């Protein structure tokens, strides 16, 4: 798999006990097979696929941002079809209510009692399509679910299934009728992945497939089949948890996040939660590339998608053309790399 940020790490065999190594290798092979399955429907976008896999390994959530027509929704649907997991989709609209997401109490006239009717959030993989088209009141209905992995209705907390991942999409160029996500909600997303326009060759491939009868609404006809399931994810997560992090790497992550707080281009730098998120994603990427220890290259590879939505630019910096990605790139260039 290719990294969400193209700085691949060196590939070295994973160590461990024979049983752990076998389970780890099997889980890694299953997750790597996701790319070939998703490629049956989505051309390119390897970095976004890798980011979704990293989020699954870290029990995190993903925000996919891209202009209309770059297969954001199709990408998540193809991922869902490649996994033996329960999935649901919610189209976020201005009139969507919080109970439409979380569920609500329903009165049963036969028993004269209220019973809880679960909403679509009670699933393994929730596709929150165009999340910025619904008001903050409904957006906030996901806050508890994303952070605590539970939903509280009428004072009663109800646990969500495990694994649980929210994959939300948003359009960065359309502001009419949209509601930007507040910083508190953005911070709940482990990764913010940008889905770019395809290259000329990939776009030709897309048109060729459509000319040959490909229907993006019919993934079964595309031949996508489940290649990984909960057992593979559990084995992979156990292997990621055994991936070693040296004191120097931990200090490197902290130095990167502290440098963002001191940047003159920012009003808000990465928080300690951002630092823990970067460490988690770097560990997952290290394991995916076949190692049981984290290197500085792993941290660099995941810095952009992990931190770009956790920092806030000064208005004057935005007017000068500075972007979140350019600030993080500059930080990575100046923070000393451990040897």
What does the secondary structure layout of this molecule look like, with pairings?
Blueprint: H1 18-38, H2 46-58, E1 62-65, H3 72-82, E2 87-91, H4 98-102, E3 103-108, E4 113-118, E5 125-129, H5 136-139, H6 143-148, E6 150-153, E7 156-159, E8 165-170, H7 183-186, E9 191-194, H8 200-211, H9 230-241, H10 247-261, E10 266-268, H11 272-288, H12 296-307, E11 312-313, H13 315-319, H14 324-334
Parallel strand pairs: 1-8, 1-9, 2-5, 5-8
Antiparallel strand pairs: 3-4, 6-7, 10-11
Helix pairs in contact: 1-2, 1-9, 2-11, 9-11, 10-11, 11-12, 12-14
CATH topological fold name of the largest domain = Rossmann fold
Rg, please?
21 Å
CATH homology superfamily of the largest domain: P-loop containing nucleotide triphosphate hydrolases
Report the major sheet: 5 strands, parallel
Derived from helix and strand composition plus strand pairing, the structural class reads alpha/beta
Average pLDDT works out at 89
Query: Are there runs of 5+ residues with pLDDT below 50, and where?
Result: 6-14
- So what's the CATH class of the largest domain? Alpha Beta
- Tally the beta strands: 11
How many alpha or pi helices? 14
Q: What count of domains describes the coordinates?
A: 2
How much helicity do the residues have? 40-55%
Helix and strand run: HHEHEHEEEHHEEEHEHHHEHHEHH
Query: How much β-strand is present in the residues?
Result: 5-15%
Ends: how far apart? 26 Å
In spatial order, strands of the major sheet run 2-5-8-1-9
Shape: globular
């Amino acid at each position: 798999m290719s990294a969400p940020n193209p700085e691949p790490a060196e590939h070295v065999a994973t160590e461990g006990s024979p049983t752990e190594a076998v389970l780890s290798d099997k889980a890694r092979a299953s997750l790597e097979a996701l790319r070939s399955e998703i490629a049956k429907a989505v051309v390119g976008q390897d970095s976004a696929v890798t980011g979704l896999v990293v989020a699954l390994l870290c029990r995190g959530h993903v925000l996919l941002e891209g202009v209309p027509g770059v297969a954001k929704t199709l990408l998540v649907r193809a991922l869902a079809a490649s996994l033996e997991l329960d999935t649901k989709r919610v189209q976020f609209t201005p009139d969507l209510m919080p109970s439409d997401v979380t569920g609500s109490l329903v009165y049963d006239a036969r028993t004269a009692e209220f019973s809880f009717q679960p909403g679509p959030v009670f699933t393994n993989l929730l596709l929150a399509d165009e999340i910025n088209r619904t008001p903050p009141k409904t957006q906030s209905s996901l806050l508890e679910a994303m952070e605590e992995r539970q939903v509280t209705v009428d004072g009663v907390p109800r646990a969500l299934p495990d694994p649980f991942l929210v994959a939300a999409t948003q359009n960065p160029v359309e502001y009419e009728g949209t509601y930007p996500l507040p910083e508190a909600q953005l911070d709940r997303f482990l990764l913010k992945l940008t889905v770019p326009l395809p290259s000329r060759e990939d776009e030709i491939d897309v048109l060729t497939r459509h000319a040959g009868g490909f229907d993006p609404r019919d993934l079964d006809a595309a031949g996508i089949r489940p290649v990984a399931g909960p057992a593979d994810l559990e084995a992979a997560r156990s292997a990621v948890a055994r991936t070693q992090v040296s004191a120097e790497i931990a200090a490197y992550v902290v130095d990167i996040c502290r440098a963002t707080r001191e940047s003159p281009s920012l009003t808000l730098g990465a928080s300690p939660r951002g630092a823990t998120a970067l460490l988690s994603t770097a560990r997952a990427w290290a394991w995916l590339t076949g190692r049981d220890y984290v290197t500085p290259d792993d941290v660099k590879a995941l810095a952009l998608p992990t931190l770009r939505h956790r920092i806030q630019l000064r208005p004057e910096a935005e007017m000068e053309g500075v972007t979140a990605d350019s600030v993080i790139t500059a930080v990575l260039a100046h923070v000393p790399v451990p040897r």
